[in-house]
Structure formats: structure tokens, C-alpha cells
Amino acid sequence: MSKLTNLTPSIRLSIKNPNSESGSVFGRGIADLCLGVREKGSLNAAAKSIGMAYSKAWRIIKETEAALEIQLLNRDGAHGSSLTDEGNKLLDSYLEIAKRVQEAAEKEFHRLVD
């Protein structure tokens, strides 16, 4: 049995606006922030849960929103944040695509190395 069968591929998905000159994309980090907002109801709580400063999370959200030309979060000041309808749809789509691509990559990798 080959030692290669113990390995697994790791796929990094990102979603970008091809018309944007910004390097900002919707990737795993922003997805984690959005998941945190969905679960905790606050960008501050989401940032803390992944060990990120609120100011950095805020900057990343704003840069990504500008690059994608969509609003990801509804902000309600001291009352927290929630994902917009587009933010929810983008997050759900990202998570499903990432899952499917990861599963396909693992299957193909093991087919090739076995």
C-alpha cells in the first residue's frame, strides 16, 4: 500500500468579482466571519471567536463588500449584525461548492494514487 493513500488534497475556493480591481475575494476567512455573524449575531463576537480583532474583521468585510459590489451584513449598531439575503445566499453557495469540490478532489486523488 502506497503512503500516498494516507494523504488528502486541500482545496481553497474563492469567489471574486472579475470586474473588480481589488484583490479582495470571498474565501474561507470571510466565510468564517459570516458564519460567526450568522451564529452569534455580531461581527465583534464572530471576530473574537476566530481570534481576530474587530477592526480587522470590519476592514475585511468592507473591502470584500466593495470588491464584490454587494452588502454582506446588515449592521444594527450596538444590537449586532446579521447577514443580508445576498450574504446568506453567497455564504450557503460558497459552503456547498467548497464541500462538493473537496469531495470530488478527494475521490479523484485517491483514484489516481491507488
From TrEMBL:
The protein's matches in Pfam families, at most eight in alphabetical order, are given as: HTH_1
Question: Could you name the domain of life of the organism this protein comes from?
Answer: Bacteria
Read off the Gene3D superfamilies from this record. Winged helix-like DNA-binding domain superfamily/Winged helix DNA-binding domain
**InterPro entries xref list:** LysR_HTH_N, Molybdate_resp_trans_reg, WH-like_DNA-bd_sf, WH_DNA-bd_sf
Every HTH lysR-type domain range: 37-87
Instruction: Drop me one GO molecular function for this one.
Output: DNA-binding transcription factor activity
Which PANTHER family does this one have? DNA-BINDING TRANSCRIPTIONAL DUAL REGULATOR MODE, TRANSCRIPTIONAL REGULATOR MODE
What name does UniProt use for this protein? LysR family transcriptional regulator
Q: What are the top taxonomic ranks of the organism? A: Bacteria, Bacillati, Actinomycetota, Coriobacteriia, Eggerthellales
